[in-house]
Amino acid sequence: MGIKTENIPVYPVSAFDAGNRAFWFMPVERILEKYPFMEAPHKQLFYTLLFIEKASGFAKIDNFSVRLDEAKVICIKPDNVFSLDINRTAKGHVIFFTDNFFSLRYNNNVLHQFSFLKKEAESYVRFSSQQSAKWKILLQLMMEEKSSSLKGSEKVMRSFLNILLFDLERKFVPNHQLEKISNKEEKVLQFEKLIEEHFIQQKTPSWYAQQLHITPNYLNRLCQGLRNVTSGELIRKRVIIEAQRMLHYTSLSVAEIAYRLGFETPSYFITFFKNNTNSTPEHFRKNNF
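-> structure tokens emitted (289 positions)
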């Protein structure tokens, strides 16, 4: 997987277009020549929809590889560790968008209800030739809109994105209807967002409960009812995911990783990691390459 560095690079949408910080899309042909950093493991601060018409290579998302061959759409979520190996004559498009771009017109909760955008969802879905032809038409219309520079163009692009997302939801989960999000689900989503922002500094459910203006016991009941795990387990799981990424993708020592993840001592981190994975950090690193 090449030379390891001390940090996993993190890129915003503006890495692809300096003038746009929330939405961008382009053909995949020769994409690695234009943006070679995509070939190495990195994180993204946005969602990516990779529409493949025909290609060869692999898209690697954390420790899972998706073969690039016939028509499919691959979804990369914010904070996934992602790398792309794709032939230069590949056909298809890639779309980048942030939460904020979508929620400028559509209620932010709706975006969370697309099942394929959730962190634990499958990474890709295959398309039939008919489905692929439909996306080619939609993306061609988006390209024309992008080139037009007409009034309200960004709103039109957001509408096209909404159509694509709903179409994907039907492919990932046939016959599934989006339902209005409940207050309980909204609290858990807020909790998960807070974890993403603060898991290095804050590892106890009581801190998060205070931010959400609920009791720790109620937060725990919500998580058990809606996620089938305790609130503490959700926090620990996020810490473990980051630890595994750093062990896998960086050259940092176990001690350095411990301190970067907010642990007071390396021994505390090692015990934490072993209790939650049944493996020591060194054993995980040795057996996952």
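The chain has twelve helices and ten strands.
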